[in-house]
């Protein structure tokens, strides 16, 4: 559980940094920045896989990488960043608040649902997911979305975003895309 807590702490920190960057920077700057971060992360992952290991990166990977993801170092961070980058491209023509909401739902809803589901989850739903994780993810996403949106927008966005975890695609892609789509529908 300690490894998952540390992993989600990094998830929250990176996601918060992305939200701040998207909020403060024009879209024309934020999206290339995300692309650059993804490219650098991919390069580091590739070199690590080939045996060229940067000391700090090696320690972080050993500390937080899930056993099933060891074949692709940094897979979680890469798919997280790629999910936000894909959402950026999809929602580029719209108000950047949509992208902020999509990133917020992924950062806090997914992170909290994982932590709470693994720690307190008893009622299995599909795969490794639990009802307790989904409910706490909805609560966490709602609270964080309520920073940017009224509760009547934050709550349905959080519900649909957390239900998107159940789709048979990496939730780093489904959560922000569904959250952004819901925001477009109800804004």
Distance between the termini: 38 Å
Strand content: under 5%
By secondary-structure content and strand pairing, the structural class works out as: mainly alpha
Query: Helix and strand string, N-terminal first?
Result: HHHHHHHH
Which segments are poorly predicted (pLDDT under 50) over 5 or more consecutive residues?
none
How much helix is in the residues? over 70%
Total domain units: 1
Count of strand segments: 0
Main beta sheet: none
Report the radius of gyration as a whole number of Å: 16 Å
Number of helices: 8
Give the overall shape: globular
Mean pLDDT: 87
Entry summary:
The protein has helices at 2-24, 27-49, 55-64, 75-90, 96-120, 131-145, 151-163, 171-186. With 187 residues, the protein is mainly α.
SSE diagram, text form:
Blueprint: H1 2-24, H2 27-49, H3 55-64, H4 75-90, H5 96-120, H6 131-145, H7 151-163, H8 171-186
Helix pairs in contact: 1-5, 2-4, 4-5, 4-8, 5-6, 5-7, 5-8, 6-7, 7-8
